[in-house]
Structure formats: structure tokens, C-alpha cells
Amino acid sequence: xxxxxxxxxxxxxxxxxxxxxxAGTSIEWYDFYAFATAAAIVFNDVFFPEDMPTAxxxxxxxxxxxxxxxxxxxxxxxxxxxxxRVGRKKTLVITLxxxxxxxxxxxxxxxxxxxxxxxxxxxxxxxxxxGIAIGGEWGGAVLIAVENAPKGKATFFGSFAQLGSSVGAxxxxxxxxxxxxxxxxxxxxxxWRVPFLASAVLVIIGLVIRIKLEDSPVMEDIQAGRTxxxxxxxxxxxxxxxxxxxxxxxxxxxxxxxxxxxxxxxxSYLLSYGTDELHLSESMLLNGLTLAAFLxxxxxxxxxxxxxxxxxxxxxxxxxxxxxxxxxxxxxxxDTGSVxxxxxxxxxxxxxxxxxxxxxxxxxxxxFDPHVRYTGISxxxxxxxxxxxxxxPVVAVTLSEAADGAYWPPAVLLMAISVIGIWCTTLxxxxxxxxxxxxxxxxxxxxxxxx
Length: 451
Known about the structure:
The chain is mainly alpha-helical. The chain has a single domain, classed as MFS general substrate transporter like domains (Growth Hormone, Chain: A, Up-down Bundle), CATH 1.20.1250.20. The chain has 21 helices and no strands. The chain has helices spanning 14-41, 43-46, 54-70, 72-85, 88-106, 112-115, 118-146, 154-180, 184-191, 193-211, 217-224, 237-244, 246-255, 257-277, 282-310, 312-332, 339-365, 373-389, 392-402, 408-438, 441-444. Mean pLDDT is 83; it is low at 1-11 and 440-451.
């Protein structure tokens, strides 16, 4: 990463920027994962007919989860445009506010028993709103952290935006575990609503932190005309990205596939498989996922720090290789019913997947020019989530049902996308090396997100 501490372009406190990225993404992902957890264990009974077959209710429940991913690319385009033209900070305030309102509203929804088919329709509408909001969140949070990072520490500081995923998962899973202590009847009637309603408090905290934040020096350079932009300044950011950087977008999509879709296979689908097929304790599995989220929170900064020293792409590739090795054992131990073995594999899988989350932020950020960077990384991330993330639990359940409830089809799918991810991460690294070799020195001094 180049030095940006010139008098006209001095970055704000990197720690403050990293904290703002962490706080905002933690709240956004808390809301998002709360929906994922509820879709796995309660929405099938609350928002669908009681006489519907269990498998169909599960697929329908995960279907409401999946629709949120359909509008994430649109959110990436809309908020990417605002972020590239107006500013990173203002965009992040808007996305956090939208997500908070949608999540709080989910906690107030009537059930199927109360209003019939209107219940799942309202749930889907609010899920779509969540999808639009999260579509613009990740890219801006990453850039706030990466574009303010000190020289040579882009991967480490960029990981704080990714840590929001760990914190959000930890808080949401922990909240549902806590509500589960009140018993099944209480949980199904009102307990599941509490995590959604509680998000209002978290959103207020996040807004206070983000409103006080300054925009990134990269954005200031762009707005002041100090950064070279395209030969066609009136061209929309999304148009320029599609025309000039589509290969980077494609490589980013498949490099992220395991970090997005794979995550939901080893969390939401694993939870559904364990409770529906093997009749394991719901509380036991939720507690295991909570421990795994805590481990992810602890090791992600260290793995990102390692990425700054040995190469971010090497850490990501090693993590993907670990997923390939652990995919089948992760599900195989579920049949034993052993809490120790199940927790051990949950923790091992989350450790290797943590190697994907932090470093990938800086890898993607360096792939696009500063004036279209928000749009570029948002497109890669959100299209990937639409394809691999939202439909991962649905596809996993469908494949498993086609194999009489067997775990191996989803596990093999997870292995396949990880192998493809290794190849695409290598392509991104090679493209970065070629780009740096062709970039004039004067432009290098203005570049702001190289690892």
C-alpha cells in the first residue's frame, strides 16, 4: 500500500476508520444473520401453514432468506454510484438506517396463523429491503478501512470491516441462544422477535459512530480533482466497471464464493440438517455456532496481519484448501452425536474460513480504480452473494433431500466452489502484479489501495 500522508491528502486516524467500519458492519450483519438463524429454526413454523410438509416448509423458509440476495446487486449499483460520486460516509449512514428499520419491522410482523398468506409476503418485502441495504454496506465499509490504512497494512485494517460479519454472527446467534432458554413455546410465540427488535438500539449506536466519521482521503482526492479519472467522466461508474473491469468482477465473484455461499452451508444448512435430519439439540448446535463465531472474531485479525507479511492471496488460498479438506468431516461427525467432535469440526472449519474473510477485502479493493472502486467491489461481492450466498441453503437442502437426506451432496458442492475459488484468487493476484507493472510511477503515487 502506498504512502498517502502528504499535506493535501492526510488520512484520518486509521483506528477510528476501522472502528467505524467494524461497528457498522457488525450491526448490518447482526440483522442479516438474525434472519438466517430464524429462517433455519423458526420461520418455517411461524410464517407457513402448519399442515405443510416439513421439507417444503424448510425450503420455503430458506426461500425467504434467499430473496434478500436478489436485490443485493441492485443495492451495490445504487449505493456504489452514490459512494463513488457523493462519498463513502454518507452512503454508509443511509444503508445502516435502512437496514435497521427493516429489521425492527420484522420483529413486529404478524404470523401465518394471524393473517394467513399476508405474513410471508410481508416477510419477503422486508427481506428485499434488507438486501438492498446490505448491497451497499460492505463495499463502503471496506473502503473506509482500506483507504485510511497505513502503508503496508491494508489487509489488516481492511479486515475490520470483515470482522463485522463475525461480531454480527456472534451477537445474533448468541441472542437466539439466550431466547431459546425460555423454552420452545415462549421462543416460538415471542422469543424470536426480541433479536430483531433489539437491533434498534444497535443501529442508534452505529449511526452515532458513523455520523462523526470523516470521509476517506481517496474520496477527498476524487472530489478535489487530484485523482485521475476515466477519459469519459460522465460515464456511470457501473458502466465503466462493466466495460473495463468485467474480468476482475468475474474473478472476484468466484474467489468469494466459499466465503459467502460456503458460510451458509456450514451454518444455516448445518443447523437445519442437524435438527431436522439427525434430531440433534437445537441449543447445542446454536452454542457451537456461537463458539465458532467467537473464534472467527479472534483469529481473523491475526490471519489478516499475516496476509500483509506473506501475501493476502496466499492466506486466502490456504484457507480455501482447508475448506476442501474439512467439508466432508464437518458433516460426517454430525452422525456421531458427539458434542466434542461436532464442536471441534465447527471450530476447525471456521478457522480456515476466517482466512478468507479478512484478506479478501484488500485483494478486491486493489483490483479497481479509485473513482469506481465502491461500485466495482460491491458488484463482485453482491453478485456472488446473490448466486452463491442466498441460494446456498436452499440448494443444499434440495440436494440433500434428493439423496434421501444425505449430507455428501452439499459437502461436495462446497469442495467444488472452493477449488474454483483457489484458481480465481490466483488470477486476481496475477492481474494485480500485471497492473502494477504497467502503472506509471506518477499514478502509483496516487494509488491508494494496493496491498
